[in-house]
Design goal:
single chain, alpha/beta, TIM Barrel, eight-stranded parallel β-barrel
Length: 290
């Protein structure tokens, strides 16, 4: 097994979203404010893109923070490299802790697109394990197909509860069989502990003993994120989270509307990030409160 895996705690604040390009420094300052008030440096990190966050990425690497740099082309349904065949040079320019790729993969979706995406992810996986010192983080989204929602009579909640967990398992197994070997799977939250346990079992099957999972926020409301974090935290193999918009969106909107100052926005982001950590570590039942 070529993959090394990563099984330490990992609490990420992602802001690789292009819609917040002008606010990335504010969000990063919120992260640094949390570090200054005691968030463990060996567990805390950011996910940022090169296009609008190169200076932040360099600063974070220079300060020894855990970093993840996204390599996918933004706003695309199909995974493609942001810099095409030059993706290697762009990774080597920063050497982040993790190289993060986002893929939308529904096993019952377009088979040709699945084949194309899988081939690109295999190239990235092979390169990272053979040539680069960055670890591989794969963000797996399993959006519903129209036929699946029709079968569930349009019920998105039913999809999340009844169908998505099975499809996530199938996607992980298919990607592994195709030679795609993440060190960390960044996955959508699950409401049932048994589903979290099955995801970890799939991620670690076949000798992948140190491969781990983290929960992504998906921009959901605080109650749903709280439930996802609390559920995953009780399962060995889930090592943390990557919660972005749930933590920064409201403070950034308020700051842009001049309802709060920049300093207040920074402090609010730090508090929300802290509270997600406290939830994952079982210290509070509140997440993303102002």
């Amino acid at each position: 097994m070529t993959t090394v895996g990563y099984d330490k705690h990992l609490y990420l604040l992602p802001f690789d979203h292009h819609e917040v390009a002008a606010a990335k420094q504010v969000i990063y300052d919120g992260f640094k404010a949390a570090i200054a008030t005691g968030v463990p440096r060996d567990r805390a990190g950011i996910i940022v893109d090169e296009q609008f966050g190169a200076a932040i990425l360099r600063d974070a690497v220079g300060h020894g923070y855990l970093t993840a740099c996204s390599v996918e082309k933004a706003r695309q349904e199909e995974f493609e490299f942001a810099y095409g065949a030059d993706f290697r040079q762009h990774i080597e320019a920063f050497h982040p802790t993790f190289c993060k790729a986002l893929v939308r993969y529904n096993p019952e979706g377009d088979s040709l697109m699945i084949k194309r995406q899988t081939a690109r992810l295999r190239r990235l996986s092979d390169y990272l394990h053979e040539k680069d010192r960055s670890l591989f983080m794969l963000q797996l989204l399993v959006p519903p197909e129209k036929a699946q929602l029709d079968w569930l009579r349009g019920a998105g909640l039913a999809y999340d509860m009844e169908l998505r967990p099975r499809l996530m398992l199938q996607a992980i197994e298919e990607l592994q069989s195709a030679g795609v070997e993440p060190d960390v799977w960044k996955v959508e939250g699950l409401d049932r502990r048994v589903d979290c346990e099955r995801i970890v079992a799939a991620a670690r099957q076949g000798g992948r003993k140190k491969v781990s999972c983290i929960v992504l926020g998906r921009g959901e409301d605080e109650m749903k994120v709280r439930r996802w974090l609390s559920t995953a935290a009780r399962v060995r193999g889930f090592i943390g989270f990557a919660v972005g918009r749930t933590n920064f969106q409201d403070p950034i909107v308020a700051w842009r509307q001049k309802a709060i100052t920049r300093e207040e926005a920074v402090a609010a982001i730090a508090r929300r990030y802290w509270r997600c950590i406290d939830i994952f570590e079982g210290k509070t039942k509140l997440c993303a409160a102002a």
